[in-house]
Design brief:
The complex is a heterodimer of chains A (162) and B (506).
Chain A lengths: L21 H24 L3 H4 L2 H20 L11 H24 L1 H16 L4 H22 L10
Helix pairs in contact in A: 1-3, 4-5, 5-6
Chain B lengths: L3 H12 L3 H4 L1 H13 L5 H8 L8 H18 L1 H7 L8 H12 L3 H35 L3 H15 L7 H15 L2 E2 L5 E2 L13 H14 L19 H12 L2 H15 L6 H15 L11 H25 L5 H12 L6 H6 L1 H29 L7 H20 L3 H18 L4 H25 L10 H35 L1
Antiparallel strand pairs in B: 1-2
Classes of the chains: A mainly alpha (162), B mainly alpha (506).
Chain lengths: 162, 506
């Protein structure tokens, strides 16, 4: 239940380090920092309006909005939904990490091996524990995708086996 | 405006040419399948089937290609509704309400509405084309950078706060999207934000970035969910419900008509086309609705507005291509290439000398729209089985196909890398309540707005007063201002009415 003042109105939220929305603050601060870096780089290229006509006002707007949003992150309103459990977050983060690794090794190990590996890992993260499915589905899917896109795409993509 | 003799000749030409008809259904099916694959665009489908038309006669070849174009126009909306992944940039706005409808178990209705809105959109735009092909093309030629910049800003303003709980979050996301859209070399020749990466000179690859932003924010968020539709009863694929969704379009003619007119008008402008028409149509439907807050939550009118506009932009782009010989985008460029393969040069002379052929192409598109109702319903019926697939299988499959689609678009590792970066960004933004769609809109419109603002700036010699000498841009600006003021006034009245009702109740 939210706190109220002596007139029955919602009391202003008090600052607490534990209540700060650190994740959101980190994301928007990183984006704002990247925008500022972009502005510095663009101004280094040229101060001509042909270079900064849209870019500069947009970055100033983004930085002003960052200040508003960062203030909101320091005093976030009570969450309406229950927070995500660490297990659920871990599973999602593992899927994101698996996808990033899949993209990074595509050219190194070949598209076929990378797709097969990613599908096995993603199925496992998603909760598939039946070994026949884990053994059969990934190679069949990999073969189908490589063959279909090999036919569709006019330029080659590196593969190791298929 | 209609040359009746040429129209009669066109009917005779179609009636006496069975070849013109037999390629229509295969063309629609090819378009539907390619349009539904994330990253594989209608242009790519047209490019792939183009060589097959070399040995056909001219009219059957063009009808086959326009069938692929029509099928792909609707195909993109199928993954947009079922998985929140637009098959093409023209289906971005379809995800805003189509995907929430799917999550609520209303995928049958959403797809039915999208299909019928698409068919009506195609028909209306070709009807406009049939009557106004020449005047429409002449209006398009008068659209300069001032007018184009005004259209771009209009789209951005209408959509800056899509699906966000706070205006600041929506605007921040849109600003970040615009900045992504300005990366690389601009039209004035300045290179910024490329980080020394050669492929970023051309800007951020739009389609992989868009698929990454929208696909990731949906798919990664679903890792702990078993099915797209939680309730098993709602996963049923029901023909009556698909048809009911289609019938609901007929009860909202204003939404569809407005979307079709916006699509035909904007689609006719070269270089703009369906990807912006669907966003502006959606924004206008939301702005003028008595319950704008219901948009983004699964309002079927959002699906109709977006689909009517992206399908009708096909007719608009055909007007420019046929009357002026100017391709509005990749698909019409390939159609012009097909003209050239048959030793035909599109443009005003072709229009004057072969008006019967032009009318035959337009009439065949009416038939395609009717056939799309049948073929599209069958396709939707099959494609809807996606909602029955466990997400632990669907997520890796869609991510892999999106990656391959990104590779296909860029022809290098740049596509998958862009997809990955924007996938992670989309996931992080969506987790924290930022509207990923606003970044996509910013990305799509950022480059257009900068390019047109620069041209306008150069033409005006740095004098913004020159804007006053462009009545069309002034009209667009005035319409934008009036619509914003009207929306703000309506919101204020509604808030006041709520306050009065609350105080009366207490």
């Amino acid at each position: 239940m939210s706190e109220t003042d002596r007139h029955g109105r919602p009391a202003p939220l008090r600052f607490s380090w534990r209540r700060v929305a650190w994740g959101e603050l980190a994301v928007i601060t990183a984006l704002a920092a990247a925008a500022l870096n972009y502005l510095i780089e663009a101004r280094g290229v040229s101060l001509n309006p042909g270079n900064l006509l849209l870019l500069q006002p947009t970055i100033w707007l983004a930085l002003a909005l960052w200040a508003v949003l960062a203030w909101g992150c320091l005093r976030p309103p009570p969450a309406a939904a229950p927070p995500e459990s660490w297990t659920d977050f871990g599973r999602t983060a593992a899927m994101v990490l698996a996808f990033v690794l899949f993209i990074l090794v595509l050219e190194e190990v070949g598209y076929d091996i990378a797709i097969w590996g990613f599908v096995v890992v993603a199925l496992f993260i998603g909760g598939e524990r039946r070994w026949p499915w884990l053994l059969l589905f990934p190679p069949v899917f990999t073969w189908a995708v490589v063959e279909a896109f090999g036919w569709l795409i006019p330029y080659p993509f590196p593969t190791s086996i298929v | 405006m209609i040359d009746l003799a040429a129209a009669g000749s066109a009917i005779a030409m179609l009636a006496g040419n069975p070849q013109a008809w037999i390629w229509m259904i295969p063309g629609l099916v090819i378009g539907l399948v390619f349009g539904a694959l994330p990253g594989i665009s209608g242009s790519m489908a047209l490019a792939l089937v183009l060589p097959a038309t070399l040995y056909m006669d001219f009219l059957p070849a063009i009808i086959f290609l326009t069938s692929v174009f029509t099928g792909a126009g609707f195909g993109g909306s199928v993954p947009a509704v079922l998985m929140g992944i637009p098959g093409t940039s023209a289906a971005v706005a379809t995800t805003f309400d189509g995907y929430p409808m799917s999550r609520q178990g209303r995928h049958n209705e959403a797809l039915g509405a999208a299909l019928i809105a698409s068919c009506i959109g195609v028909m209306l735009s070709y009807a406009v084309l049939f009557v106004l092909v020449q005047p429409l093309a002449e209006v398009v030629l008068r659209m300069g950078p001032f007018e184009m910049a005004a259209i771009g800003i209009w789209g951005l303003v209408l959509l800056g706060s899509i699906g966000s709980s706070s205006l600041a979050k929506g605007l921040f996301a849109a600003a970040i999207g615009v900045l992504f859209g300005t990366v690389g070399m601009n039209t004035a020749g300045y290179i910024r934000g490329d980080m020394g990466v050669s492929w970023l000179l051309d800007g951020v690859p739009t389609i992989p970035a868009m698929v990454g932003l929208l696909a990731a924010s949906q798919l990664f968020a679903l890792v702990n969910t078993r099915f797209i539709v939680a309730n098993e009863e709602d996963r049923k694929i029901s023909l009556p419900r698909i048809l009911a969704g289609g019938a609901s379009v007929l009860r909202r003619p204003v939404t569809v008509l407005r979307g079709a007119l916006i699509g035909a008008g904007i689609g006719a402008v070269p270089g703009v086309g369906a990807s912006i028409a669907n966003l502006i149509s959606y924004g206008e439907a939301r702005r003028s609705d008595p319950e704008p807050e219901s948009f983004g939550q699964g309002n079927v009118k959002g699906v109709m507005a977006a689909e009517a506009a992206n399908s009708s932009s096909e007719g608009g782009s055909m007007a420019t291509m046929l009357a002026l010989g100017i391709p509005g985008g990749g698909a019409t460029a390939i159609l012009l290439a097909a003209f050239a393969m048959h030793n035909v040069i599109g443009g005003p002379r072709f229009m004057d000398e072969n008006r019967d052929v032009v009318y035959a192409i337009i009439m065949s598109n009416f038939a395609q729209a009717v056939l799309l109702v049948v073929v599209g319903t069958a396709f939707v019926f099959v494609a809807s089985s996606v909602v029955r697939m466990p997400l632990r299988y669907l997520i890796p499959c869609v991510l892999v196909i999106s990656t391959m689609g990104a590779f296909a678009i860029e022809g290098s590792h740049a596509g998958p890398l862009t997809l990955c970066v924007f996938a992670v960004l989309g996931w992080l933004m969506a987790r924290n309540g930022y509207p990923v769609a606003a970044i996509v809109v910013g990305l799509l419109l950022g480059k257009l707005i900068e390019t047109e603002m620069l041209r306008a700036w150069q033409m005006a010699g740095g004098e913004w007063g020159e804007f006053l000498n462009h009545p069309a841009a002034l009209v667009i600006g005035a319409l934008m201002a009036v619509s914003l003021i009207w929306s703000a006034w309506r919101d204020w009245r509604r808030a006041r009415a709520r306050r009065v009702a609350a105080s009366a109740a207490s």
